[in-house]
Design brief:
This protein is α/β, with parallel strands linked by helices. The chain contains ten helices and ten strands. The two termini are 38 Å apart. Bound molecules: adenosine-5'-diphosphate and magnesium ion (MG).
Length: 299
């Protein structure tokens, strides 16, 4: 193969032909899912404890291109582990994952170009400005720094963040703003699937709404498929086209927010609220975990 000097090191993976997106519902027969997870299982053996923790237990979901898909669960239910499996940071103990038909184990490079994970604490050099951080990321991805800068200004501009805010140290920005820059950085590589692990956890209410609006705009302006984890019912209801409820590593219910609410009202005689849905399927309340969940993420 001939190497062309100025080309990015990694050639883009072939993308499926674009077709109109109808966001709600699983992919119909014949359509390649953006993300397919089948019987995914992950166990952790901790210390001398003989019994492993089954963090992700036989999880299967199929996500359509253009969906915002929510993984809703209490602290410790396996959300981050699932996200890490999909982003190839952890290896599967069982099952398989495909991103637009590419197997994450056999075609890891192709998959890495199509997905990007944004974790709660965005890994930034806090003394440097967003511009400097993004230039660094661009170099890492083999992109031209000037081009990357232009793209970032354009992405953030389109999403309502002015250029002059990008030149002061990251540590001086609000957490909400940092989260937006982190998401914009993830868009630099034109990922088709964004994995957002608790994107609004720990944010004040105003920044939270702001980041939620930003996520919707990203979906609409970038043809992105977004998988987000949350333990915030209102967030799941507002943002997600479909939701998987996860409890002790298992998916215990899945559907659109309305489907899930209708289901508990009809079959269980509960109030048609997402709170009632959660209680019905997990036997626990999400509120109990909100405080601990802040310390939860490790990266
Ligand atoms: N690296 C790890 N080593 C050992 N146990 C882990 C590790 N990561 C997660 N776990 C365990 O797996 C379970 C699910 O954790 P996690 O995926 O972080 O949940 P969530 O993101 O929903 O809070 C928890 O019991 C947690 O203690
Ligand atoms: Mg987590």
């Amino acid at each position: 193969m001939i190497e062309v000097m100025n080309e990015p090191k990694r050639a883009p993976a072939p993308m499926p032909a674009r077709e109109p997106v109808r966001r709600v519902g699983p992919p119909p027969a014949g359509e390649l899912p953006a993300l397919l997870i089948e019987h995914a299982t992950k166990r952790f053996v901790v210390g001398r404890k003989k019994k492993p923790v089954v963090a992700v237990n036989d999880v299967s979901v199929s996500i359509r291109r253009g969906e915002i898909y929510g993984i809703l669960g209490a602290n410790g239910s396996g959300k981050s582990t699932l996200i890490r499996l999909v982003s190839t940071l952890l290896t599967l103990d069982g099952g398989r994952v495909e991103v637009f038909g590419h197997d994450i184990e056999r075609e890891e490079m192709a998959v890495k170009q199509l997905i990007n994970r944004v974790s709660v604490d965005a890994a930034f050099f806090k003394k440097l400005s967003p511009h400097e951080n993004l230039a660094y990321a661009a170099r890492l991805y083999g992109m031209d720094a000037k081009l990357a800068r232009r793209q970032v200004v354009e992405i953030l501009g389109r999403l309502g963040v002015g250029e002059k805010r990008l030149d002061r140290p990251v540590e001086q920005m609000s957490r909400g703003m940092q989260q937006k820059v982190a998401i914009a950085r993830a868009l630099l590589t034109s990922p088709t699937i964004l994995l957002l692990d608790e994107p609004t956890t720990g944010l004040d209410p105003r920044s939270k709404l702001d980041v939620q609006t930003f996520i919707e705009e990203v979906r609409d302006t970038h043809d992105a498929t977004i998988v987000l984890t949350t333990h915030d019912l209102a967030e799941a209801e507002r943002l997600c086209d479909r939701i998987a409820l996860i409890n002790d590593g298992r998916v215990v219910a899945e559907g659109t927010p309305d489907e899930l609410k209708t289901l508990v009202a009809r079959d269980y005689g509960k109030e048609p609220t997402l709170d009632a849905v959660f209680m019905t399927f997990t036997g626990r309340s999400l509120d109990d975990d909100v405080d601990e969940a802040k310390e939860d993420d490790d990266e």
